[in-house]
Design brief:
By secondary structure, the chain is of the alpha+beta class. 39% of the residues lie in helices and 15% in strands. Strands 1-3-2 form a three-stranded antiparallel sheet.
Length: 229
């Protein structure tokens, strides 16, 4: 089917922006705010109209979602509803945007830390680069009754990108907890209560051993084997 022209002003600015992305940018490609504004010099709030496409399942990433982007760049990742077609302009997302108060409440419950890597907001990553930025991610969770639910969790900009398709099966997870031995469950309960896990000396030794060169690993293995004799 031939696409309508993004320059046809019988369509609203949001629809024209969608058509421009499909026709001129293409999925997976990067565009700048300057390019967008130059394409729509007659629309004062074209940036906002383009952001509104996310309510129709369009994925448009900024540097917050994709650290490889520059400040003025955005990436058109995926087309959503074809809102230029009759009946498709109705908002597709069943979940409304979070308010600032709701976002703060979620982050406070998560200790203002990324629940995937543990980094705090504005902290530097160990490998350098841009400091972390915390945001709210939506995680699909399969509940004990088998139904699926989208739940909110705090994640940093890096982990949100890598975990976008992540899904949690809570039923399986709880089943694994029930299968633990009594001592294992007590250890896990202590970690959960503290919301932290301090590696044991044994785990630290194992971690260091894994980093050793081959000759040193051999010496380490011999030392461990001699203790068994």
């Amino acid at each position: 089917m031939t696409l309508p022209s993004w320059q046809d002003k019988k369509y609203g600015s949001k629809t024209r922006a969608a058509l421009w992305l499909v026709s001129e940018v293409g999925e997976g490609n990067v565009f700048t705010k300057t390019q967008l504004r130059e394409a729509f010099p007659d629309v004062a709030q074209i940036d906002r109209r383009t952001r509104d496409l996310r309510d129709h399942e369009w994925q448009i990433d900024t540097r917050r979602e994709d650290p490889s982007l520059k400040l003025e760049e955005q990436r058109f990742v995926k087309k959503g509803a074809e809102i230029w077609l009759p009946g498709q302009a109705k908002t597709q997302k069943s979940k409304a945007s979070l308010t600032a108060a709701q976002r703060t409440k979620i982050m406070a419950a998560d200790g203002f830390l990324c629940r995937s890597c543990g980094i705090g907001n504005g902290e530097p990553y160990h490998d350098g680069g841009q400091d972390s930025q915390l945001d709210i991610a939506r995680r699909k969770v399969v509940l004990e009754n088998g139904s699926a639910q989208v739940q909110f969790v705090t994640e940093c900009n890096r982990c949100r990108v890598g975990g976008r398709e992540r899904e949690v099966n809570l039923s399986e997870l709880l089943g694994q907890v029930k299968a633990l031995a009594s001592l294992e469950r007590k250890v896990l309960a202590a970690w959960v209560k503290a919301d932290a896990r301090k590696p044991s000396e044994l785990e630290k030794l194992w971690g260091v051993y894994r980093t050793l060169p081959e000759e040193s690993r051999t010496a380490f293995q011999q030392a461990v084997a001699s203790e068994e004799e």
